[in-house]
Amino acid sequence: MPVTRKKSLNINYELLAPDINYLVYAYLIDAGFEHAAYNLRSEARLDTTSDKKSHIQRHLLVQLLAKALLYVEVESHYREDGKTVQCTAPFSLLKKHVCSTSPRRTVDLVPMSVNPTPTPDASDSTRDPLKRKGPGRGGSVGGKRGRPSKVQVVGDEDADMEDAQSVPQTPLVPPRETNLIPHELTNGRAAKRFKESNLRPAELIGTHENEVYICAWNPSFPALLATGSRDASVCIWDAGTSQESGKPYETLTDPLANADITCLDWNPEGSLLATGSMDMYLRVWEKSGNMHIHSNLETGGSIPAHNQGPIYSVRFSPSGRLLAACLLDGTVTVWDVKEKRPKIHLKSHRTTCLDVDWRDEFMVATCGSDGQIVLSSLDPSASNLGWRGHQAEINQLRFNGARDMLASCSDDHTTKIWEIPPLLASSTVQELESDTTRLLVCTLNGHQGRVTRVMWSTLDMETVATCSFDSTARLWNAKTGECLRTIEGHTRSCFTACFSPDGYFFASAGGDGSVFVTSVKTGERVAEWKDEDSNVVFDIRCRLVDGKLSLAICVGRQVRLMRVT
């Protein structure tokens, strides 16, 4: 596209194709359309533009479109006599505006420098902050991992728009399903308000240059916290010294890194950290900051055909000897960590593979955007079992502690519990393939939006928790399907949640910047925190040291520590 430059009223502006492409790319990432974003990034060659390292303010495209609607309003209603037509017809990005046919009245045009005083009807509830799904995928982002997880975009209460009160109260067209107004208005239930006695400070540990999508405590060195960001950086923080200095314990740098960190996982000993990225490279780092595995280097400097696309989830085996990574192209690559080489490539899904978990050292379970769940053996001669688990994308799956039950959550608003037989002999696979419904223990129904994460309690083998785009989290009995508790109060999508290591507490966080800690036994909210700027909380992780519970919080570009007990 040629460069378009305009000069009018001494104001110069230009429209450049790379700028527009990058704005659309940032919007797709924020909205959770990672597959479409990847295709645009590849076809538009965004990695070669000068903007690839630039910080694009979150929801910038939506803000610009909102300002465009303001201009359309002025253009439609301004009259040469200095008055403006006041009509009640809504404005739309896609439809030509037609003023209402009801009797019109004119009012004096208020000078643009004057900021009208908000009326009671122009409350903050009409200016809902934007939200991102999240990290997601296992320790991954977007939620779907958290994947860094899928993202929803609906508005921005932090937008630098002094005239926001003039924006027509017609919702912008959101991707898929969104909450355009606070949760308490959409479902008729009043949200639980913050209790001053429960409020906790969240001390700043450090910051990234861009949004922090994911975090994970080191299992053997509890003071160390790993974080991954949209700025392609991975940092290891010391919760004590970093808090005082604001500097990371280690910054893991790779000259080839140029895209979002989507997932990370520590090995059981806490000596290695695996990370996946939108740049298609798997990296394994030593705690000291040295590179242990780089998929591009270990495969001869080129990306093999079966590894085309971003990595959405990485997970060490129970022993830490093996590492599984699932990718956009539907494959799972299992690496031998000691030998630093791929051990086996599993073609598990027709479309994107979104998450992976280990049954044991010899079998992995995967889920994908094709709605399938696949149990794959690392023995090429063994039989694998796959079945249609949900009616939409499966965002995450997790085995319980006994490894005999598997929970999966999906965009179809449900979570399902599956009973996995101890051995998958050929005869067993053939028998189950004829009727995989026999694996289903129960379906957890109740959420009104996409279920982004599922996790098992460490206290027992029967309690499972979920969080959803319907702004709630829930605790369930995995054997009966009964909903034990509903965690309400978030006014935006609930992107992330976790149990405390002892299983006594459950923490949830949302796109409105709120964090709640709830007693699993009583349902009482024992602690809470709210970001002053209502930045999105992308990920939280609990740790328990000397009987003291604390919570790592990834909020906006910041990494914070909330001490609960």
From TrEMBL:
InterPro entries: Ebi-like, LisH, WD40/YVTN_repeat-like_dom_sf, WD40_PAC1, WD40_repeat_CS, WD40_repeat_dom_sf, WD40_rpt. SMART domains: WD40 (SM00320). GO terms for biological process: regulation of transcription by RNA polymerase II. GO terms for molecular function: transcription corepressor activity. Residues 109-180 are annotated as: Disordered. WD repeats lie at residues 205-247, 261-295, 304-345, 387-420, 444-486, 487-528. GO terms for cellular component: Set3 complex. Keywords: Nucleus, Repeat, WD repeat. It is found in: Nucleus. Residues 114-123 have a biased composition (Polar residues). Pfam families: LisH, WD40. This is WD40 repeat-like protein. It comes from Exidia glandulosa HHB12029.
